[in-house]
């Protein structure tokens, strides 16, 4: 999918440039864009190092586990099919907390563990279960407190206030998470009405 | 909107103070842990360089050739009708497919329009408030061997649409 879009963008661009006689601009754009991409990544280093360093402290102090405990009653309602003492619930909760702090890399292995346990709960079938869809929906709506990379980019382009988008992002992500849960429920009820599960 | 910008300004410093104090209280070797975790940040930043170069060059060509302008011109009436600045439209298309690619687009939008422009803010919030549905789906389901995905993709994509609408509504409401 990405491959198609990537090649498509480039080739369509080149054909357009040929027709419109804009090859000079295109040549310039190729090297300018590549240089800009490197500049961004260098800019990202500062914020990423600082934030992941802090998160390491939070992790070792047991903050993530504390938070997971806090969210437990809420998660029980979201995943009625998962027994609350089952390891799946633990992984789901730690994955959600890691995401909350923008720790994508820490969240992914936890999410995979959660999926494994959910599969076990589902009798090891290769078919998706209700809880898996809910888990995916919550993950894709990406509840986050600090959008680290976006902050870093705004910072490297000399925003007057790089952090001003933090609160709007939290609001938007809360809305999208609620919408995701509602959409998930809607599809679940539709499946049930059609005789599925 | 006073409290929102106040919260944006205070959230990060408060979290920093809280984590450092909590870590000290729990006898975590704070500085050593910080350094250890920070090393991972360097790795991440370096590893996304190829993604960003690939996507930003493709977008650069697409824009410099005038193709982007034509596309945007073509769908403009619809976009204006829903209140989405046409420039942000390609971002909405690529966000669910590739996180790094959309990061490249956000950088591009911010570079061209400025981080404090309406478009720059909207792109920032959109990027921060949604995730890469296809990536999550591929990685999670692929890792444990789920073959029948059922409604999962539909639910994920509709959730992305909801996220974009929420971002658009909130940003246009605030700024």
UniProtKB/TrEMBL annotation, chain A:
It comes from Bacillus aerolatus. The keyword Nucleotidyltransferase does not apply. Pfam families: Gate (PF07670). It comes from the Bacteria. The keyword Transmembrane applies. Residues 42-151 form the Nucleoside transporter/FeoB GTPase Gate domain. Keywords: Membrane, Transmembrane, Transmembrane helix. This is Spore maturation protein. The chain crosses the membrane at residues 6-23, 35-54, 88-112, 133-153, 165-188. The lineage of its organism: Bacteria, Bacillati, Bacillota, Bacilli, Bacillales.
From TrEMBL, chain B:
Keywords: Membrane, Transmembrane, Transmembrane helix. This is Spore maturation protein. One of its GO terms (cellular component) is plasma membrane. It comes from Bacillus aerolatus. The chain crosses the membrane at residues 6-23, 44-62, 155-174. Signal peptide: none annotated. Residues 46-147 form the Nucleoside transporter/FeoB GTPase Gate domain. The keyword Secreted does not apply.
């Amino acid at each position: 999918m990405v491959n198609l879009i990537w090649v498509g963008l480039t080739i369509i661009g080149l054909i357009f440039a040929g027709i419109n006689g804009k090859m000079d601009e295109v040549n310039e754009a190729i090297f300018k864009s590549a240089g800009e991409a490197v500049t961004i990544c260098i800019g990202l280093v500062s914020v990423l190092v600082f934030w992941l360093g802090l998160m390491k402290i939070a992790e070792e102090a047991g903050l993530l586990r504390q938070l997971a405990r806090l969210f437990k009653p809420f998660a029980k309602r979201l995943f009625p099919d998962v027994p609350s003492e089952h390891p799946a619930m633990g992984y789901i909760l730690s994955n959600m907390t890691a995401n909350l702090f923008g720790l994508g890399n820490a969240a992914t292995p936890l999410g995979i563990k959660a999926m494994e346990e959910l599969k076990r709960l589902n009798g090891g079938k290769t078919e998706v279960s209700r809880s898996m869809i809910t888990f995916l929906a919550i993950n894709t709506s990406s509840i986050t407190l600090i959008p680290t990379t976006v902050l870093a980019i705004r910072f490297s382009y000399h925003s007057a206030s790089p952090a001003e988008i933090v609160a709007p992002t939290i609001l938007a992500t809360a809305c999208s998470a609620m919408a995701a849960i509602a959409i998930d429920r809607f599809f679940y009820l539709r499946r049930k009405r059609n005789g599925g599960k | 909107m006073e409290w929102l910008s106040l919260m944006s300004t205070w959230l990060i410093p408060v979290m920093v103070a809280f984590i450092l104090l909590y870590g000290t209280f729990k006898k975590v070797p704070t500085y050593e842990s910080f350094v250890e975790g920070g090393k991972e940040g360097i790795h991440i930043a370096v590893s996304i360089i190829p993604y960003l170069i690939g996507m930003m060059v493709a977008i650069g060509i697409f824009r410099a050739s005038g193709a982007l302008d034509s596309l945007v011109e073509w769908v403009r009436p619809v976009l204006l009708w829903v209140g989405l600045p046409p420039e942000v439209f390609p971002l909405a298309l690529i966000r669910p497919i590739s996180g790094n690619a959309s990061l490249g687009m956000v950088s591009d939008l911010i570079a061209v329009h400025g981080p404090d422009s309406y478009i720059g803010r909207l792109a920032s919030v959109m990027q921060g408030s949604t995730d890469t549905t296809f990536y999550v789906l591929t990685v999670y389901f692929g890792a444990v061997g789920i073959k029948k995905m059922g409604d999962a993709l539909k639910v994920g994509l509709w959730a992305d649409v909801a996220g974009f609408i929420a971002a658009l509504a909130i940003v246009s409401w605030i700024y």
